[in-house]
Amino acid sequence: MVAAWSTVSGTHPLVLVVEDEAPIAELIRGALVREGFTARVCGDGSGALEAVRRDRPAVVVLDVGLPGLAGTEVCRRMREEGDWTPVLFVTARDEEVDRVLGLELGADDYVTKPFSPRELVARVRAVLRRGGAVAEQPTLSVGQLVLDPATRRASAAGIAVELTTTEFELLAHLMHRPGRVHTREELLAQVWGYPAGTPTRTVDVHVAQVRSKIGTAARLRTVRGVGYAVEPG
Ligand code: CA
Description:
Blueprint: H1 2-9, E1 14-18, H2 22-34, E2 38-42, H3 45-55, E3 59-63, H4 71-80, E4 87-91, H5 94-102, E5 109-112, H6 117-131, E6 140-142, E7 145-148, E8 153-156, E9 159-161, H7 165-175, E10 182-183, H8 184-192, H9 202-214, E11 218-223, E12 227-232
Parallel strand pairs: 1-2, 1-3, 3-4, 4-5
Antiparallel strand pairs: 6-7, 7-8, 8-9, 10-12, 11-12
Helix pairs in contact: 2-6, 3-4, 7-8, 7-9
The structure holds calcium ion (CA).
């Protein structure tokens, strides 16, 4: 989409800074802005997931030690949703580095505290350079259904399908692990960002819409009382 692309190719790429310690967040934000980036700060993991979905940053600078949802969990959920926005982890201890890298979260780089703002900005630049990062997102395919997260295009049996952002995110989330049953609660939390227990039929409604669009290219299987899985048609 245009908005997603502009954050990568524009002159002021958006960096989402996820850091609960306000003085450190402000230090990072200030350094990024001085170097020509646009920076937004978020102090917790859940908010970070929402901001990533909403703002489509070019890079996420992600503190590991966050209250509530840890930085590692934020990254894991992003990847599960098929979001391969580059993530630069900020860790407080060397032991965390091993953990972050060992978890195979698709971390793009990391810096350890204390770091100089200059060093951090250099790392952000490096991650962006390496990037075309958006273009490196793997294409998802199940049966004859193909989703390309880099271009946000979808096709069913070779024919282009117009999907809303939410429909695209829903399918990408399911297609990242074909055959796995995703509960409604999980989908609501990870695609919509709703808190647990939100009474809504929005998942079912969207699944029905997606089914009508993709036809028999792939099958969105209902697991009664549980949720949904995507399988070859
Ligand atoms: Ca912290």
